[in-house]
Design a protein that fits this description.
Layout (H helix, E strand, L loop, with lengths): L1 H13 L13 H7 L4 H13 L3 E4 L5 E4 H7 L7 E2 L2 H6 L22 H12 L7 E4 L6 H14 L9 E5 L7 H9 E2 L11 E2 L1 H4 L4 E5 L6 H5 L2 H6 L1 E2 L9 E2 L3 E6 L3 H4 L2 H4 L4 E4 L8 H19 L2 E4 L1 H9 L5 H20 L4 E4 L6 H5 L15 E3 L5 H8 L1 H21 L5 H21 L7 H22 L1 E2 L2 H13 L7 H17 L1 H18 L5 H14 L2 E2 L4 E8 L3 H13 L4 E6 L5 H14 L5 E6 L4 H8 L7 E4 L4 H12 L4 H11 L4 E4 L7 E6 L4 H12 L8 E5 L2 H7 L5 H4 L1 E7 L10 E3 H6 L3 H8 L5 H14 L2 H8 L4 H19 L5 H19 L13 H21 L5 H12 L12
Parallel strand pairs: 1-3, 4-11, 4-12, 5-8, 8-11, 13-14, 18-19, 18-20, 20-21, 23-24, 23-25, 25-26
Antiparallel strand pairs: 1-2, 6-7, 9-10, 13-15, 16-17, 21-22
């Protein structure tokens, strides 16, 4: 069998193990290749052998496996089978043992029993002998076991002596005889009652210096409870029949009951017990805790019968779903019965096969109702007395194992960076991808319904902290990372890393603090606040992973961009759509808001308003909603928005991808909304701001939108970004036809238009392109900027405009041809035409002609010339046509092209008419 081959190979090779130069032969990858196994199969075999205590596992990257017995024979004995590093393995040789916390071995110590354990420790550590406490809980919840554990813990912590007694008294035995109870509790003196022939100490004195556990204390009558007042008040007892003086007794008192304390005990009695601990029922504990208890009890039975146990997946699933009315006690007894049944059927042997056929009749009777109790586990679980129980229990918590592995991987990658063999950008990319993979697994593989309420609480608190801090830090993150962080904080372990890993973690933490100071402060403040709000045990590694994850998802600084949000009803509908869209778009485009089904339009509008306030510098906002709210929410915030808002309903992943692509392309939201309405059955509404519109300058050109866009680029390069002025290229035709009805005038406060021809927009100054080139239009532009910035900045803008709007720069921006040659050819054309037509062309027409002819030459070379003239061919045009054709022959011969008649008509219009019209858009 290959499993045995693996074991034999490792047994031989461990004799040659060098801790200072660990060979790859101890890795799962090497072993899989050597024995022709799949990597996951080899890992499965190796982890099983670790659980059985046969192998040692070192959780570095890569993970190493050693034969435990061979290692101990060659080096020294080990206390466990799993180590975080080789250094931690070597530290075992020092023989130093950490102080043991007995409660850390208690299943649920980080979950359902966390608060009770804190209360128990509080009672024990209180000065001057501790505090009395009352443990309540149904039968079988573990009250007696916890009392015994407190005794062991108190000894280990030095709170009581090593030989301190633990005395138990069941009050139910004396419920009908208060005098007998008093005699057993406090003792009696000779002659106190008939038959009292000698003095006798009671339970209090027997427990002096230790712990007295009074079980079933609710069976005490009022008189019996009152007899305890003297000790509770003064720490003294009086033996029965003794009145002269009391006996001071140093004892820690623990009460236990299954009843409601307020209906059973005297108020004066309860008042004297400051700590009251409530133990949860088994069914109220998490699924993971219940499964861990099952494995623990089977492990104890395996040690008792001296045989290995092979537990079927179906058996474990049935036991984890069955409702045990008797709580943990009943579960323990059922498992005893199951193992005893298997032992009786199969007899003593190396391994007992335990299945559902060994279940007692009451559980068997419930099997039809437990038909849905299925499990993802396919293989039997093998355990015996050598099985490492803590490792076995930890291995059942897949989420915690994944987080632990990621933490080790991140630290290992950082050490690679520190070795100077890798650059940080590569390491950061790998870490980000590993964190993303982990968060995907945590979100999509999570089936634990017991943790859903905690997940909701943690996620809501994380979201609240993010929203609170984003504005003060001038950063923004998408909502999907908040959901992922919530899952991580719910699942991650509270166990501190090893000393070696903790040191490396501190070094990584300091490195990130220096490299990303703003993000580091943000993460630190978030986690500090969550520690207060959620009682989380935040570690340095949490801050490291949070920072690297946020850096991976992208930090957005406030800038003039279109923002987008998805509003949808349901637990994670909006988050899911946003997450998929953002990842496919490879950018963080969407923020998500998951809303309850009964949310009001006012509440939705309030969230939108808060989002708008946090993103006040955004240029516009697209809101994708699922249903219902479209026609209602806008009326609650329309008067408060300071940017254009488009609301589109019937959101889907397909729609989110389409809208996201258009946003990334820089399209306006009004165009996005109108275009999507033609393809999908949606409704949309656009809300224009009533105040604080962003300022803009429009560039337009009769030659086409391509030339206008290039002029836009030149003007943008001349105006500082700090002024917050948008420069927008726009269709000349559309402006001339629709005037102020165009949406751009609703979106922006348009300061001026710059172009080759005036579209005559009322109340908007027009600056001809030729005046910028000649330097005459600067005064108009500077008049616009004077109210926005100081004189020195205005002077710098003037210098940039003079530089950027030289004739050569303008022509370079609209054509790919040799600028010097084009200018020379156009000069020859103009000179010859003025001679043939006996006219003088004005300077402004010359500038427009330089730009137009430059574009025309490129159209002719690309064979994309305009063939149809859209204007009216008057006789005056034909009179000039021959002169134009002859003058243009200079360009035709130079570039080997032929100019169509339609193009000549357009040249004529530029030279002679007050308006010009181009039917075709040309992109350059």
């Amino acid at each position: 069998m290959r499993k045995d081959d693996l074991l034999t190979f490792l047994k031989n090779q461990t004799d040659f193990f060098d801790p200072h130069d660990v060979s790859d032969i101890f890795t799962a990858g090497h072993l899989a290749g050597r024995f022709a196994l799949r990597r996951n199969t080899a890992s499965h075999y190796l982890n099983q052998l670790v659980a059985q205590g046969v192998l040692i596992k070192i959780n570095t990257r890569p993970v190493y496996f050693l034969h435990k017995a061979s290692f101990e024979q060659q080096f020294y004995r080990l206390s466990r089978t799993e180590f975080a590093s080789v250094d931690e393995l070597l530290a075992e040789s020092d023989g130093g043992k950490q102080q043991h916390d007995h409660f850390s071995l208690l299943i649920g110590h980080e979950g359902s029993l966390r608060k009770p354990i804190e209360q128990l420790k509080t009672a024990l550590f209180y000065p001057d002998g501790g505090l009395p406490l009352l443990i309540t809980g149904d039968s079988g919840t573990g009250k007696s076991y916890l009392a015994q554990l407190m005794h062991e813990y108190a000894i280990a912590q030095g709170l009581i002596g090593a030989d301190a007694p633990f005395v138990t008294l069941n009050c139910a035995q004396y419920a009908s005889n208060p005098e007998l109870l008093a005699a057993n509790l406090f003792g009696y003196v000779k002659g106190a009652f008939t038959g009292a022939t000698t003095d006798k100490a009671g339970a209090f004195e027997a427990a002096d210096g230790g712990i007295l556990f009074l079980d079933e204390v609710h069976r005490l009558h009022a008189e019996g409870q009152e007899k305890l007042f003297t000790w509770l008040d003064r720490g003294e007892i009086y033996r029965l029949g003794e009145t002269a003086c009391g006996h001071a007794v140093s004892v820690r008192l623990i009460f236990a009951t299954t009843e409601d304390i307020h209906s059973t005990f005297l108020t004066t009695f309860i008042r004297r017990i400051p700590i009251q601990v409530v133990l949860p029922e088994l069914e109220s504990r998490s699924r993971k805790e219940k499964e861990a208890l099952i494995l623990q009890f089977f492990w104890l039975e395996a040690k008792k019968v001296g045989s290995g146990l092979s537990l079927s997946p179906r058996l474990l699933s049935v036991l984890s779903h069955y409702v045990f009315r008797g709580n943990v006690g009943e579960l323990k007894n059922v498992i005893k019965y199951v193992v005893a049944s298997a032992f009786a059927k199969q007899g003593a042997g190396p391994t007992l096969s335990v299945t559902i056929h060994d279940l007692p009749e009451p559980v068997m009777a419930q099997l039809p109702a437990l038909s849905e109790a299925v499990t993802d586990r396919q293989d039997d679980i093998l355990l015996d007395e050598k099985t490492c129980l803590p490792w076995l229990l930890q291995s059942q918590d897949a989420a915690r194992m994944l987080i632990h592995d990621l933490q080790l991987s991140v630290l290992a990658l950082f050490e690679k960076y520190r070795s100077a063999h890798h650059v940080w950008d590569d390491i950061e990319l790998r870490i980000g991808n590993e964190i993303e993979e982990l968060f995907d697994r945590l979100i999509f593989d999570s089936r634990d319904k017991a943790s859903s309420q905690m997940l909701l609480l943690v996620t809501s608190q994380v979201r609240e902290e993010f929203y609170r801090l984003e504005k003060s830090y001038s950063v923004q993150f998408n909502g999907n990372c908040i959901y992922a962080i919530g899952h991580y904080l719910v699942h991650r372990s509270n166990v501190e890393p090893s000393k070696l890993n903790a040191e490396v973690c501190k070094q990584l933490d300091r490195f990130l603090e220096q490299k990303y100071p703003l993000l580091y402060l943000f993460c630190d403040e978030v986690l500090t606040s969550l520690t207060r709000r959620l009682d989380l045990n935040i570690q340095a590694m949490d801050r490291v992973l949070l920072l690297l994850w946020l850096n991976k998802t992208g930090v957005q600084t406030s800038q003039l961009v279109t923002k987008a949000v998805i509003l949808a009803h349901g637990y994670a509908t909006a988050s899911s759509i946003a997450n998929v869209a953002n990842r496919l778009l490879k950018q963080t485009v969407y923020e998500s808001f998951d809303m309850p089904l009964d949310v009001t339009p006012e509440a939705i509008a309030q969230q939108v308003t808060q989002y708008v306030e946090r993103n006040a510098q955004a240029s516009s906002l697209v809101i994708l909603v699922d249903m219902g709210s479209l026609n209602d929410i806008h009326q609650y915030f329309s008067h408060r928005v300071t940017m254009p808002v488009a609301i589109i309903n019937n959101v889907s992943t397909r729609m989110a991808l389409y809208v996201g692509e258009r946003i990334l392309q820089g399209d306006y939201l009004e165009n996005i909304a109108s275009d999507i309405a033609t393809d999908l059955p949606v409704e949309h509404k656009i809300i224009w701001p009533e105040r604080n519109k962003p300022k803009a300058i429009i560039t337009t050109c009769a030659t086409g939108i391509g030339a206008a866009s290039n002029l836009c680029s030149l003007l943008k390069a001349s105006i500082p970004q700090e002024l917050g002025i948008e420069v927008v290229a726009y269709e000349y035709e559309t402006l001339a036809e629709n005037k102020r009805r165009e949406p751009i005038f609703s979106r922006f406060d348009v300061l001026a238009l710059v172009g080759t021809l005036d579209p005559n927009i009322p109340d908007v100054p027009y600056i001809p392109l030729d005046t910028l080139i000649s330097g005459q239009g600067n005064e108009t532009l500077l008049g616009l900027f004077g109210a926005l910035t100081g004189p020195e900045e205005v002077k710098q803008i003037n210098e940039r405009i003079v530089k950027n709007f030289s004739l050569r720069r303008v022509i370079e921006s609209v054509t790919i041809l040799d600028t010097g040659k084009v200018i020379n050819q156009v000069e020859q054309f103009l000179t010859r035409y003025q001679h043939l037509a006996a006219i003088s062309v004005p300077n402004d027409r010359k500038v427009a002609l330089y730009v137009h002819v430059s574009c025309l030459i490129e159209r002719l070379i690309r064979q994309a010339a305009i063939q149809v003239y859209g204007g009216r061919r008057a006789q005056c045009q034909r009179n000039h046509l021959s002169a134009l054709r002859e003058a243009f022959s200079v360009i035709e011969s130079s570039y080997s092209v032929k100019i169509p008649e339609a193009e000549l008509f357009y040249i004529h219009d530029i030279l002679h008419l007050e308006t010009e019209f181009l039917q075709y858009d040309q992109e350059f």
